[in-house]
Amino acid sequence: MKIVPYAKNAKKHPANQVELIANSIIRFGWQQPIVVDSDNVIIVGHGRNLAYELKGEEMDEPWITNNEGKTLSGKQGKKLNKEEIKAYRLADNKIAESDWDMDLAMEEINSFFEEDLKKITGFELENYVSKEDEYELSGIKLSERFGVPPFSVLDTRQGYWLDRKRHWKTLILDEGESREGTLANEDSLMGEINSGVSILDPVLAELAVNWFCTKDGKTFDPFAGDTVFGFVSASKGNPFTGIELREEQASINNKRTSEAGLEAKYICDDGQNVAEYIKPESMDMLFSCPPYFDLEVYSEKDNDASNQDSYEDFLVILKNAFTNAVNCLKEDRFAVIVVGDIRDKKGIYRGFPDDIKSIFKQCGMQLYNEMILVESLGTLPQRVGQSMKNRKVGKCHQNVIVFYKGNPKLIKSNFPEIEYVSEDEQF
Prior knowledge:
The strands form 3 sheets. Strands 7-13-14-12-11-8-9-10 form an 8-stranded mixed beta sheet, with helices on both faces. The chain is α/β, with parallel strands linked by helices. The protein has 2 domains: 85 residues, no CATH class; 296 residues, Vaccinia Virus protein VP39 (Rossmann fold), CATH 3.40.50. Helix 10 links the parallel strand 9 and strand 10.
């Protein structure tokens, strides 16, 4: 039967270990099964599966069971005598020793509540998260004063980031359920996450509000997508309005934010029509993570930017939407746009971040900050072997581009100094 390795398996199985596992199965038979779920994805037994792929012709059919204990293929190996039991016990414990891919392990660990980690997995969080550099200002850690250190590189792998992300995930509960499997290209930052769905990082949403929006200011997004930004913004006391083309997604977002008692509104319409719902110069921050052309196709609608026939047609939609959105933004306010470059069919980068800069400059906005959002590697280490055949390096970042509308000299007066918050009150 055909079984599938789990894409985020964090346990490494080097070639010498797989060889040992194969030799053990040949000698002692299938003493442990490969356990799969209802989709035939491996739960435990990745090393045994690799061993069978390596030396299957010397073994019996693999013993495969499901998570209910039902045998799906093969059977348990031979009965061992006392001496063989001693040898197998030693071999099994020794062979199991190997390293972990901690980026993948942390990605899985983050789906647990912290208090369950040690009890369920044996992992202790503080032993594995990256430790922040102790950057301080007047004796206060930058991560405490600003939420995360305000540098041009934002590191989502750090402990302070992961802690806050877990907090938001338990509140928002958005797993992109309305668009599972829409990512078209797995050779990308967003591939193979959240069942093939890209979800905005809530910590990024939070720091955008904290750093670039006025107190109690109104935020908006003409390409609203998932619930995350609206939920975070409204939770921080900043009312949110989002335009979302897909009725199902808009409905989910409204339901989720309404149940949380938040002042967030999602309007089902084309983002190009944003000015029909928002008055000119009435909003205090524009935030958007627009579609990445056809990397993730959201719907079959003719006016959906993600399914246009050409990249040029895609840019026309973005330019129309953002031009109208900038007109809705007050003077002396920020726009924060999250983008990442995308390849054409020949594998050449299109220059998407540069095109976004050009659109906003044409709208009269000034490029004020540019940050790199570094993501955990996920399954990238497994995929770069294939991509590097064409010399494509693995992409593990996005661009966070900040524009300003108005006179930069007025920023100090419109945006008061960010106050220090205690560790318990961060963000």
